[in-house]
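Section 5: illustrative case.
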């Protein structure tokens, strides 16, 4: 690290993952942010201090997190998204695989606690990122609590938009011409009970 540059790692918060802040004297005005695994790396001018610095970092992080999801691109980014969400909300629980599927007609998503596989209906590809996030958190919670028990909801509802997500999906089902009573968020298919 050259003179005048520094790296600080900010711990994860409820609303965002771990952030690595790289301050460089070579940067004068502009910043940049990218994902590195489940961590966000931001690059900022070293001259920024105090409140100005935190505001600059917050803006870069928020911009990156609100970017159009990579969820159109494939299973790898869906899996990566699940990893970030697991760290944020579900005690870092790990799925064996997280995949888009097209053969799931009556469920938005499903989780097999035995094989630890999560499948998400490709119908959700068109949904806003927060909806997919809420669905992923719901499925990740099933890796810990297979049933829809109070303990399950304690985990799943750590994502703050679960209720909103249910309402969104009810409306989305209507829009797709699906009978909503046929469409559940999931069933933990091979769970006991
Ligand atoms: Zn469920």
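Designed sequence:
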């Amino acid at each position: 690290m050259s003179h005048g540059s520094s790296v600080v790692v900010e711990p994860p918060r409820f609303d965002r993952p771990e952030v690595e802040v790289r301050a460089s004297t070579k940067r004068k005005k502009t910043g940049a942010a990218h994902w590195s695994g489940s961590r966000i790396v931001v690059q900022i001018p070293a001259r920024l201090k105090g409140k100005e610095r935190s505001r600059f970092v917050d803006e870069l992080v928020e911009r990156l997190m609100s970017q159009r999801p990579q969820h159109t691109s494939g299973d790898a980014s869906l899996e990566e998204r699940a990893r970030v969400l697991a760290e944020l909300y579900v005690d870092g629980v790990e799925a064996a695989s997280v995949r888009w599927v097209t053969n799931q007609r009556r469920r938005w998503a499903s989780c097999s606690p035995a094989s630890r596989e999560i499948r998400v209906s490709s119908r959700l590809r068109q949904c806003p990122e927060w909806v997919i996030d809420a669905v992923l958190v719901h499925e990740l919670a099933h890796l810990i609590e297979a049933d829809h028990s109070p303990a399950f909801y304690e985990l799943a509802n750590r994502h703050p938009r679960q209720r909103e997500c249910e309402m969104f999906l009810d409306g989305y089902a209507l829009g797709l011409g699906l009978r909503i009573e046929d469409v559940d968020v999931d069933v933990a298919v091979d769970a006991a009970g």
